[in-house]
Amino acid sequence: MDTSVPSAKVEISHVEPPPIDGSLSSLLEFADYQATHHGELPWLIYPAQPSSNNLAAVSFAEMVSASHRIAHAIRPRREGTDGRVMAVILHTDAIVYVAVLLGVLRAGFVPYPISPRNSPQGVEHMLKTTACLDILAHASTAVLVRQACEELALNSKHVRVHDLPPMSEMLPTLFGKADQPSTFSPYPASERPADPESPWLIVHSSGSTGLPKSVPHNHGHALDWLRYNIFGSCLAKARFGAMGLPTFHGMGILFQLCYPLCSSQAVVVNAPQYPDPPIFPNPQSMYELCRMAECTAVIALPSFIEDWSHSEEKIEYLRGLQVLLFGGGPLSAEVGDKMSAAGVPLLCAYGGSEFGNPTLKWDEVPREELVRNPDWAWMRFSERIKIEWVPQGDGSYELVVEDSDGYHIDVYNVSGRKAFATSDLWVPHESKPGLWKIVGRKDDVITLSTGEKIVPLPQEGCIMASPLVAGCVMFGRERAQAGVLIEPRRMTVDLQEEVALELFRDSIWPVVEQANTLAPAFAKIYKDMIIVTKPGLPLARSAKGTVVRKLAISAYEDEIERLYSQLSEKTNVRDESGPESWAENDLQPWLIKLAGEVVNTPNIAPDTSLFQQGFDSLSATVLLNHIVGALRSSATPAAQLAADRLPLALLFQYPMVSQLAMAVASFIEIEESSIEPSALSTGIRVEDIDEMVAKYTLNLPTAFAPTLAVQPEGGRVVLLTGATGNVGSHILGYLLSDGGISRVYVLHRPSDDPVQRLKAAFALRRLPTDILDSPKLIHLVGDVAAERLGLHAALYYEIINTVTHIVHNAWSVNFNQSLAAFEPLISGVSKLASVCATSSRPIRLLFTSSIGIANGWDMKQGLVPEHSLSDPTSATSTGYTASKYVTEKVLEAASHNGVSATCVRMGQACGSRLTGAWGTSEWLPIMVKSSRVLGCLPVIPGPVAWVPLDIIGQAYLDLVLADEPLPLLVNLVHTRPSNWDTIVRGLKEGLQEDIPVVSLDEWVGKLEQLSSSATEKDLTNVPALKLLDFFRALAGRTRARSGELALRFETSKLVRCSPTMLGLQSISEEHARMWVAYWRDIGYLEGPESPDTLL
Fold first, then answer.
1. Do residues 69 and 103 touch, judged by C-beta distance below 8 A?
2. Are residues 245 and 296 in the same domain?
3. Do 421 and 462 belong together in one domain?
4. pLDDT tens digits for range 375-409
5. How far apart are the first and last CA of the chain?
6. Order of all β-strands in the sheet with 267-268
């Protein structure tokens, strides 16, 4: 842009503020005044592109010109009637959004900016309640708009959807050619002046207590509101950094639209990304931009300030501001005290869509009163505003704001009065009259089933002070006990792993205990009542960034219900550390320790009733839950069975620890005499499989788009999961290298640096890392089991409107887990099927299944077919195989409903033919390394139908490029199997060792012998010790199949849709030599040593 950006330190002496005597009666007139008198001055300042070290700006004249062009585009010749409501549903930059709002106003509409984060039902509700029949939308919000309109169409409401005009024509100097003349034809003005009683804008509430509410603001009240909120002695001298505010929110409109118009002062925002989604700043990027742009005032989220508080450099900058405004949520006391003591001028901003901002503004408070102020969290209300404090009987008061001559409000909810009851609860300062602090909301109060009431904000605020916590919300309405949902900050540990979860709970437990000291006993949060959020399902937040309590709790309703069920039914399945043994003498000290932790009492007497030592019915239930959890986690079958036998009233029947230890031991002794051999089997029941199949096939939607041959224009667009694994990285490599694929979205699990993890995965497997710089590749972070894949709504809808194929390759490979442990993954596939079904265009879903689902297949029936297996018994070998079987059945049901789904039953993948790369966490490299120490290699009888990783990548590419419909199931195994003798010869040549070959049973026997006295060093040199159960099962299956391990699979459907598999050559000795060379090259096979126990 040519618009110059003056230094914020230079006073612009010739700038005259607009008159506030009423001669300007609308925002449009303010805009036209600025364009006429200060046309070349900047309205919005942003980082110049491509360099981020320079600033650019869009001027008042350019924005006003854009408003004329936009008005022409959306309402040519001012046809129709003025005053119609136009919903603005966009996911775009502040500059574009402000220009659009001004253009909608100029076209005679009443703009209604609607957050794209709303649900279709919420949007439909807002459109209906405002009689809105015009929508301005963009491609990124098209699906949301379509779904909302479908709801309206059911009620015979026909909505006109206007496409966002191309910004290259509306703002040509910004999005078009730099030298393009900025000309426009003035849009016809309204024949009547603005009616003070008519609305000029509608905004909506966050919807935290239900569906969002529409809040209209009329012209007359708006001018009064702007005079009160904006015109002040200091405002013309402040350059605000407001890049953290979404423009559809009231604060965004106030700072990015109204403030520049009324103060003649520019505001700093992020660089425009149109037509791509806008940038949402992080603490570092916002700080850097504010400093570069010489912002002298900043408005920020509390979480950003907490991040800044850890840097002396940032504090030094912030203490030089005129004011640092924060709002949208509480700032932790620890951080606020630190920043205020350091001289940072903190001020809390408070307000609401319905009643404006009734507290004193920053220009009404001398700056010296803001710095080093111990009462920074307290607010003072303007004497010009009429308010009422309604006592709640517990020391708190509800704020009621009344309409008055000097301060008008547009929404009333108090019967018989022009007043708005805010539902916000406040407490007065103990010693300073006129100071108030917000402590919560009436609808936040948690009423327990006992009738006791918890105000959660103090406890939540204390927990939020932890650097490990990104968000939290307490729950427990109509329950006997409260709990808390905690969202971790970005961490390096995988919180999907149970051990990591427990470590995280342990890490935050001290701050939860500290929070408990702020609350009465009935509000105490026990460690068992902490639910850690899933990586792909963060706590729901409003546009302000605050946690929306109702939506957050609703999103985790199933987890909360399950937690209370576990509490009442004693089915806590989390790992609990049990006693040394289940004998009475070991149980007693363990129970003493456990009981002491529950009530935080170090000295529990074993022969005194627990109810005389601080226990009540709630803590008794918690202790019982711990006991049952330990029983269930025990390796002792009798203890596992006893877990279901303990009565709910156990602690009331045996209230002393000594009695309790005897009772628990007795229950276990009873069970030891009744264990059947079947109880020691895999634990995977056919009934469990059938139940889970029924659960996830019950309500699958019917496909919206017909299943047709896929011939998309511009190439295939693929969404891929599991890209960092052995198989996934090869799939991604081949997708990126083929010209028929135009774009690949990779959905990563949340991690510290997913892009770097992917590059490391490619490097480890000797794949070309430079291909990851392809413009076709787009990285996403989310979770298939989460709402909208854990993505921002606009991004999600953009993806499902362009994707032609979903390749779902991500799965937990853990053969020790139960079927229940895989349920979130099964749920995720069900959601993907629903995504495909509800899409307006056909999406093919490819799922990586496993040939393991046929482990129990009767070889007498011949080849394992390429169709669904009717008998789930074949998949009961592990929870992993059972989960794949269930998922195949879910997708089979989805295909009956019109979804184009294909299950790729993955056989054994082996090292690439091109590089030899074979991951060392798999069973064959583990077996080879261990065999060097054991002194022998086992025989693996039967055909070797392993598929090289590069071939797997090509085969998936074949499936994605196929034009014709694909079968429901294909068996991805080698079409020309080799034999074990060939593999062994290649391994021996690669190792350069003549290792003898023995039967698999003998090899497993040697492994078992070593396991009885293995040292830590043995576990490193003989990694097969960690997979002993796996190799035992392998030998068992060999015996069960009369000496042949490998099943044989039908591949006729596979070769029909994959030319690669049709012409595949058998694995040779050379391939095996390449595997060994790769393992040597990465150091996996270097330095073999004998185990300590054999020396």
1. yes
2. yes
3. no
4. 999 999 988 889 999 987 777 889 999 998 878 88
5. 78
6. 55-59, 42-47, 267-268, 240-241, 297-300, 323-326, 346-348
